[in-house]
Amino acid sequence: MMHYAVKYSGSLEEALLANANAGGENVARGALLGALFGAAYGAEAIPAHLKRGLSRSSEIEQEIEAFVARLCSKPAM
After folding, report:
1. What is the pLDDT of residue 59?
2. Regions in the chain scoring below 50 on pLDDT
3. pLDDT number for residue 26
4. Which one of 37, 38, 39, 53 is separated from 68 by 20 to 30 angstroms, measured CA to CA?
């Protein structure tokens, strides 16, 4: 997984495509790649055409925004 993250660090789409084409445990690797790229570059870095057409994508986006807002509003312990 780290191989794809480093080799394709400039493009989430290229990293996910290379991962899918590799076969094997590509679902788990893909989820980790998405989380890693999201943490590094933010959700805005995900190309719109990769999100378009996903089932319930607007609801998922609202849940993510609510989750992040709640995390950011918690006082540090």
Report:
1. 92
2. none
3. 93
4. 53
Query: What is the rounded (10 degree) CA torsion for 60, 55, 45, 61?
Result: -20
Question: Which pLDDT value is given to residue 76?
Answer: 63
Which candidate, 7, 11, 60, 15, places its Cα nearest to that of 33? 15
- DSSP letter at 24 equals S
Res 61: pLDDT: 85
Please report where in the chains the tokens 């660090």 appear, as a residue.
Answer: 9
Q: List all residues 6 or more positions away from 15 whose beta carbon is below 8 Å from its beta carbon.
A: 4, 5, 7, 8, 9, 33, 37
Encoding tokens for residue 40?
Answer: 């590094």
